[in-house]
Amino acid sequence: MTVYALVDCNNFYVSCERLFQPALCGVPVVVLSNNDGCIVARSAEAKALGIAMGTPLFKVRELLRRHRVRVFSSNYALYGDISARVMATLEQLAPRVEIYSIDEAFLDISAICAGDAVAVGRRIAATVYRHVGVPVSVGIAPTKTLAKLANNAAKRQPDSGGVVDLRDAAARLRLLEITDVGEVWGVGRRTAEKLRGRGIVSAAQLARLDRATARRYPVTLARTVRELNGVECIAMDDAPAPQRQMVCSRSFARRIDEREALRQAVCEFASRIAARLRRQQQCAGALQVFIRTSAFGDSDRCYANAATAALDTPGNDSRVIMGLATRLFEQLWRGGYAYAKAGVIASDLVAQQRVQPGLFDAVDTPPRSAALMHAIDTINDGGRGRVWFGSQRPERDWFMRRANVSAAYTTRWDSLPLVK
Amino acid sequence: MRVEKIAGGGEFATLELPLFTEAVAAGFPSPAGDYREAGLDLNELCVANPAATYFVRAQGDSMRDVGIFPGDVLVVDRSLQVRHGDVVIVALNGELAVKTLELRPQVRLVAQNSAYAPIVVPEEAQLEIFGVVTNVIHTLRRA
Questions:
Q1: Does the bond joining B105 to the residue before it have cis omega, within 30 degrees of 0?
Q2: Cβ <8 Å between A417 and B96
Q3: What is the pLDDT of residue B20?
Q4: Where are the alpha helices (DSSP H) in A202-314?
Q5: pLDDT tens digit string along A359-371?
Q6: ipTM strictly over 0.85?
Q7: What is the value of pTM for the model shown?
Q8: 10 Å Cβ neighbour count for A216?
């Protein structure tokens, strides 16, 4: 039987902020989304104030002020670096690690937990805290779906010491009885509503769902039911699935109503996608551009549209990607709207070395194109300045509002934490 | 002081040359060709566990006598078990500070500069040690 451990960092973004600012420990802290729009991470003290996940900032500004909540903009450079440290540490502790998101990973601990799995979980949590400095919770179970539930329980029950083991069937049943069906991993919001409509409210009731009834729901639900009963259906991915698409998009701090300004923003996103593709030695087979006005409906004139096209040959040349993005943008543009967000999505990604040249491609272009792109990337990654194409609009302050962002403590020499 | 060059280090402008991609037309291939080694990497010397190593920058002169000066970069390893006499980074009054940790006869945080008094840590106090300082990078010739 496989033994899974789901390791999840507690209030990850908040924990990263606290690492170099001990004064933030014990006080309420929240972290905002891109563009400072919504609350995406809360310390335990902030949760206790009743601040919900995803709350728009403007709705709780007064509450935050009254309780002196410390508010931070997202510092992705910091979170990305700390995340990589957590994952590297987990890889030293368990033979198989599947990175599931920026702050959680599934570990296969079957080979190392002979006897006392809780002790192994405690050792994992203690080691991650000691080495990296962020607290984690560990959920242990025979299936990934149960490991997720065990982890939620570990976070919620202070007496668990941050580790919950659900391998015992009786312990499992007790937890399932008190768990809402919507909390189960893999049960979407709409499915949860449908289930509740039929009187299936708890995870325990879902676990008892018979096969015939399960067929009336999305096909994955039958799998979830089996997983809740301890039957492993979702196996460990040795290597994480290769990324199938790549997104670069931003909300604008100020609305954009000028064609040229929006076109330049789209070109900037396209050029970033191209650079990211080259870094990962991948090529895009298709490209989508989208532009939209505010989703919050603060203006009466709404417009949202997207256009997609395939590349003749999968590629990652900035000029090709930006040229196609521009053509797609020209199809989408409508004047008279205040645009709040735009983005570029590259899909049908293939490894660079597996791209077949098209029949009509000039055979001598790829090496020169690669040399030009390599030169651009070298300059841009060198940190001494940047080159860009004339159609691109380099990042300016209007791109993102990040009023309270902490320093890039771990990724820039001029931002190191100071010690007295 | 006599200075002897032991090895090249640091960054070099790279010039990529194909090495033995085709048969050598004349002469003998260098017998040393197979033994070319990679250059030395300072990380090997200073960073034992990269995931647990952080860099911080020193302010002030409270640790002058152990050779830590303002502006120096300190290499901090969180994974090490703290020992009596270690130079550590510690949370002090909500800020990070660098001090020598004494465990005997009582727990004290000691500055290495007679102008600063040692801080006695009461037994019931929770001492939050960030990590152990393993190396100091002191630049002699500032740009």
A1: yes
A2: yes
A3: 44
A4: 203-207, 211-214, 220-228, 259-279
A5: 555 554 556 777 7
A6: no
A7: 0.72
A8: 10
